[in-house]
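Worked example 2:
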Amino acid sequence: INEIMKVGADLNINFLSTSPEEIQSPQGSPHPVLPIRLAIQSTYQELGGFLGALEKLNKSIATVREFSIERKQEILPKIYTELTVDVYLKEGDGE
C-alpha cells in the first residue's frame, strides 16, 4: 500500500480514501490477493500515469479490477475516480 501511495503522490494523485479489504486466496493462484479500494482526484493525464506506474511497481504486482471515472463540477478540471487494485502478495505477506 505504501508503494502505491508513494507512486501516486509522485504523480500528483490526491488520495481521498484508501480502504484495504480482506485478503483473498483465489482458487488456482499461488499468491494471496489484497484488494485495495481507492478514491482519487486527478487529471486524466495524472490518472494515466498512475495506472501505467502500477505495472512497474518494484515490490508488488498489482492489477486494476474495478474502475469508474466521474466528472464532478466542483473539482473541474480534475476527475473523481474509484478503483480497486488487487495486490498479489508473496508468501508470508499480510499475515
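The first strand starts at residue 14 and ends at 20. The chain has a mean pLDDT of 90.
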